[in-house]
Design brief:
InterPro entries: CheB-like, CheB_C, CheY-like_superfamily, Sig_transdc_resp-reg_Me-estase, Sig_transdc_resp-reg_receiver. Keywords: Chemotaxis, Cytoplasm, Hydrolase, Phosphoprotein. It is a single chain. This protein has 357 residues and is of the alpha/beta class. It folds into two domains: 128 residues, Rossmann fold, CATH 3.40.50; 195 residues, 3-Layer(aba) Sandwich (Rossmann fold), CATH 3.40.50. The chain is built from 14 helices and 15 strands. It has a seven-stranded parallel beta sheet, sandwiched between helices. Strand 13, helix 12 and strand 14 form a beta-alpha-beta unit. The longest helix has 15 residues. It is elongated, with a radius of gyration of 20 Å.
Length: 357
């Protein structure tokens, strides 16, 4: 098996060397070169033709966001952003994801988390080496991918029959932009939406605030027991599992601080299992792009309880790991492109379809 060739771009000598040592702990990864700024990176990318680059945001001569935008226009390739774990760093990271980066990681400042950082870094670089570049680059996607024709409206008909009272979305690599696209047309007339996206704590808070600014409905990170309201979106915090419980009069989001599930905290499986148990046939589960299998078994549980289940198709997924695992388990009632998932969800927002939690 060929090694995964990586170039690390960072203006800090110590961080560049740390990234190289950390990545080469895995025998499949070969760090072929290091670059202190985007101009060095440009020459070394031409020379080595790497499979993945790691990219800092703040650098001399040209910042990482500008370089990323130029790179994705001229030579699209998998990029993992390695940025500071601050609110500003998180905002820059989400801008990078909009420009085509496939994943991100917060730099470690506490030596006690170096081992965890190294494990995540190797995991994300390996995932990046498998990404679907057509899905990352929408211009290429529109030219090269023929979407399967889909007649929208299945969910609105289904909701008329038995009412979908909650939408649960799970995602990982490439999921922040995919989720944003699905919820862009959210309405106060729609059912509550709960989202588990694999990301660190500071990033989950920034992601919720970013969506809240962009969308016409309230979006919040869940910080404690919260009553779920129609037309509201609830994001799992980056260090706890998000669960849904049913009380006598309402649905509630609650947090669980137990061990990671499938190496993840928050875990999509944890969310989906709670939805299957407490919402059952009135739930809609959506599993989006991501590496691994987190969420597949939970989605199957929702289907087995009579709920509706959708997975993102391979053509539009950045990584078809989690959705592909769900398909192999027969957990998906529908497998759709991202645009069609968004249209189906939007069809639920008709005022005549009255929410009754």
């Amino acid at each position: 098996m060929k090694p995964i060739k990586v170039i690390c771009v960072d203006d800090s000598v110590s961080m560049r060397n740390f990234l190289k040592v950390a990545l080469e702990l895995d025998k499949r990864i070969q760090v072929v070169d290091l670059a202190a700024d985007p101009y060095e990176a440009r020459e070394k990318i031409r020379r080595h033709n790497p499979d993945v680059i790691t990219l800092d945001v703040k650098m001399p001569k040209m910042d990482g966001l500008t370089f990323l935008e130029k790179l994705m226009q001229l030579r699209p390739m998998p990029v993992v952003m390695v940025s500071s774990q601050t609110v500003k760093g998180a905002d820059d990271t989400f801008k990078a994801l909009e420009k085509g980066a496939c994943d991100y990681l917060a730099k470690p400042f506490d030596p006690q988390v170096f081992d965890e950082f190294t494990e995540q870094l190797i995991y994300k670089v390996k995932a990046a080496s498998l990404v679907n570049l057509s899905a990352l680059n929408k211009k290429q996607d529109n030219k090269g991918v023929i979407q399967k024709r889909h007649t929208v409206g299945h969910l609105s008909k289904l909701r008329l029959q038995k009412q979908i009272k909650l939408i649960a979305i799970g995602a990982s690599t490439g999921g922040t932009e995919a989720t944003k696209e699905i919820v862009m047309s959210s309405s106060l007339h729609g059912p509550p939406i709960v989202v588990t996206q694999h990301m660190p704590p500071v990033f989950s808070s920034s992601y919720a605030k970013r969506l809240d600014r962009l969308l016409p409905v309230p979006v919040q990170e869940v910080t404690g027991m919260t009553k779920l309201e129609p037309g509201h979106i609830y994001i799992a915090p980056g260090d706890k599992h998000l669960l849904v419980k049913r009380s006598r009069l309402s649905l509630q989001a609650v947090l669980d601080d137990s061990l990671p599930v499938n190496r993840h905290k928050p875990s999509v499986d944890s969310l989906f299992y709670s939805v299957a148990e407490n919402i059952g046939a009135n739930a809609l589960g959506i599993l989006l792009t991501g590496m691994g299998e987190d969420g597949a078994k939970g989605l199957l549980a929702i289907r087995q309880k009579g709920g509706m289940t959708i997975v993102q198709d391979k053509a539009t997924s950045v990584v078809w790991g989690m959705p592909g695992a769900a398909v192999s388990m027969d957990a998906a009632i529908m497998t759709l492109g991202l645009d069609d998932i968004a249209k189906e969800v939007a069809s639920l927002y008709q005022p005549s379809l009255v929410i009754n939690l």
